[in-house]
Write a structure and sequence with these properties.
The chain has about 300 residues and is mainly α. The protein has helices spanning about 55-80, 85-95, 100, 110-135, 145-165, 165-175, 190-210, 225-235, 240-265, 275-290, and strands at about 5, 20-25, 30-35.
Length: about 300
């Protein structure tokens, strides 16, 4: 298997307790790692190899309070919309003072980005589990294209399911670009957004290496687009052809476009139930990567 497909699976990741990070481990290689979430600058003592110091009671209480703050912010988002999420409202719900929250988060923006990070992590974890649980029909268990098609369909369906069941959270992280997302600081929100993208990218790499499919040659791609794809490829530290990077982005725009239109109610003018339309979208996505859906008989 190509060195680009390295899966060190991080299990039991919940909310803000950890982030499944897609770390660059060298040119053209990705690796799943579990990253600890650091919410405040801290003095970290160098541990003696082979020994682990358990967190103190104070550290445990602090971590529990941070988790409660984030979950309270999310509950306000779900119940009353993004306008309701303020430090004052969170403090009121928790029986604290707004200034007291600054002992845990330096600003409202920092809290907001940790909230987004937890949402990205939850979604990525759910999609990863759906991929792992996807099995082809028993009589087609040895058919590799069928197996990979079932995985792709499971990932896309889980993305849609999660989005429809978490409309407010979806709107927060996918509706409007996160403040400062591309300002170069690379914080917890960026890390978890990259991890979420890595869930789909890892599956795409598996498809590319196990059942290669045709993609446009470099000279067939518009020069302006070609340069942008090159920068995107460099940012991901991968050696995929530019045509494959283009196909990956086309898959994402098709999937995101279909799900976002449904979540935000932009299909209601024509459809009461867009589910059959989404099945057609799955067929379009499969065709982009050389697969067939519905599965051939």
């Amino acid at each position: 298997m190509s060195s680009e497909i390295t899966a060190v699976k991080a299990d039991n990741i919940r909310g803000n307790a950890g982030a499944m990070g897609l770390a660059r481990t060298g040119p053209g290689r990705f690796e799943w790692v579990q990253e600890a979430v650091v919410t405040q600058p801290a003095q970290v003592a160098e541990a003696v190899p082979g020994t682990v110091s358990p967190p103190s009671r104070r550290d445990r209480l602090r971590a529990a309070t941070i988790e409660e703050i984030i979950q309270t912010a999310r509950q306000l988002l779900v119940n009353d919309g993004p306008e309701a999420v303020s430090l004052r409202a969170i403090a009121r719900e928790m029986g604290m003072t707004a200034p007291g929250l600054y002992r845990y988060f330096g600003s409202y923006e920092e809290l907001h980005r940790h909230l987004c990070a937890g949402i990205f992590t939850e979604l990525g974890t759910d999609i990863h589990r759906a991929i792992e649980a996807a099995d082809p029909p028993e009589e087609r268990a040895g058919d590799l294209p069928v197996k990979l098609t079932v995985k792709m369909v499971a990932a896309c369906r889980e993305f849609r399911r999660w989005a429809l069941n978490h409309e407010e959270e979806f709107g927060l992280v996918f509706g409007v670009p996160l403040p400062g997302l591309n300002d170069g600081r690379y914080d917890i929100a960026d890390e978890c957004a990259l991890a979420f993208a890595g869930t789909f990218f890892t599956l795409f790499l598996e498809l590319w290496h196990k059942v290669p499919f045709p993609v446009p040659a470099d000279e067939q791609i518009d020069p302006g687009l070609r340069d942008q794809l090159g920068r995107y490829r460099d940012a991901l530290s991968t050696s995929l052809p530019l045509g494959a990077m283009l196909t990956f982005l086309r898959c994402w725009t098709v999937l995101y476009g279909a799900v976002a239109m449904e979540v935000f109610g932009h299909m209601r003018f024509a459809l009461d139930d867009p589910a059959p339309m989404f099945e057609l979208t799955l067929g379009d996505l499969a065709a982009l990567v050389g697969l067939r859906y519905p599965l051939p008989g």
